[in-house]
Structure prediction request, 643 residues.
Amino acid sequence: MAKEKKSDYKAENIQVLEGLEAVRKRPAMYIGDTGQRGLHHLINEVIDNSIDEAMEGHCDLIEIIINEDGSITITDNGRGIPVDEHPKIKLPAVEVVLTKLHAGGKFDSNTYKVSGGLHGVGVSCVNGLSSHFYAEVHRDGEIYVMEFEHGKTVQPLKVKGKTDKTGTTITFTPDPEIFKQTTEFKYEIIATRMRELAFLNPQITILLRDDRDDDGELEDEFHYDGGVKDFVQYLDEDREPMMEEPILIEGEVDMVPVELAIQYNGSYSQNVHSYVNNINTREGGTHISGFRRALTRSLKKYAKDNNLIKSDIKVSGSDFREGMTAVLSVKVPEPQFEGQTKTKLGNSEVQSAVEVIVYEQMNEYLERNPKTAKTILEKVILAAEARQAAKKARKLIQRKSAMSGGGLPGKLADCSIKDPEHSEIYLVEGDSAGGSAKMGRNRSFQAILPLRGKILNTEKAKINRILKNNEIQAMITALGAGVGHSEEDFDLDNLRYHKIIIMTDADVDGSHIRTLLLTFFYRYMKPLVEGGHVYIATPPLYRISYTRDNIEYAWDDDTRDKIIKDLKSSRKKFDVSRYKGLGEMNPEQLWETTMDPETRTLQRVTVENAAAADKLFSRLMGSDVKPRREFIEQNAKYATLDI
Prediction:
């Protein structure tokens, strides 16, 4: 039998995928996924080409239009994709770029010294995943056009007319065969990325318009002369700055241009956002290491020279960054990315370049601005004192846990499995719902931790005060990974559950509690969110019963109305009840609707754009009431929080 099976494996079994078939066969390999994230990534792939032209000084205007039919049109005033015949492939260069993977000017250092997208699959990948793709190139006084369907040429390159402009226009329609979940672009997701690109590239103007909007109000122009300095001020709009304007550091060493803006504010968290060739390096890397070393060295030197820190106060590197918002942008000719999501820079030469520039210019700034320097170091001293108090509080938590037996909170109903990868914990609002969850759960892999009332708003509190909160103490102890910003304070390897599920009532109080928990996780256990370990449970809003044993559940009004319509058409008697809270469900109902892995729906909390999340949390949870009220007024109709 084995020999017969082996003989079936012949040359004819080797499948050769031609053109862009490989992209259509395995789209997630190229764009991450085929959900909302992958859909919007298509725009980024096209925009990257325009931004590369801008970084070389050939483009200063980009226009993005979401068309009425849901397609996207992106136009730039760059040089236009070359249209002459490629010497090796014997096809027009534009056709090579749009139909061949790993083809483009980004591999030629004479064309692009610095490039954002370095995988070489960008715009051709978009073509392969579009039901219709149209390219128009203005170059050499001519307008050239090409059309494709599902990645295949349906209109070869031809001259459409004359022009006195240069540039490229791409229009594409995402293929619903690929993007089965949704093909609807979200204006705010696109706007967030375009705003970010405009901050990082002050030489360009980006116009964004949504032609699907009947009111004609969805239109923005993004242009920021101040670059990263404006970016920091934008992020800190809802915080109280401790300086008149941000510190701006600019320089270049060994062909690595560095731009950095720093501002200290009254918050207790550190928010450092880094970019390499416009790519958000969420995992940091050598450029962040160079920045941190230089900042610590410079501030320590100034403090020592001016006797600003007493010898009995032990200051660590993280103390120098508390209450800081910073944006670091570097341009690297040949970036080497590493880490799980390929967003960690590995180039060793970049660390020294950043460190040299930041150390020299930071020293100069502190000497020229002694008043601001003193304000910063006073903030540093307070951070060090709070950190030392927090260290004592952590020890008290550990001692308290040990005295309660087993080192875990008394109200925690733990699971029997000890393998974190297969364990999950529900953080449940209220003792009543906690009781139902404990009775309804699967004890082998589901732990339950009831939380009483609302936890402290960690956006507005020092770490030592945060650690005195009983509910926060219980969570820290149950999760087992620690709390804080440094690797010493928080270690993901010690996490006891790989799924942390927030389960609250579907009302205003429940939403508030959920936001408080997310704020705490994002600010003090950030690797939990970045690692995809935090989830939100979605209990149903309605229970519809039409016989003793027939019950249906609805998670929104539309589903409820559809069920009711079907029941009315079949002339069945029914009863509709709205759940006011989790406590109204019995254990069986809670298991069936919200906790059973076979039937439940969990929303994973992700942070696609750290800068946007940072601003959102400071706006919703900060001290200033006005921006929070404005946000609620603008977004009340949506009734959900998408992070």
Notes: Residues 1-7, 9-17, 635-643 have pLDDT under 50 and may be disordered.
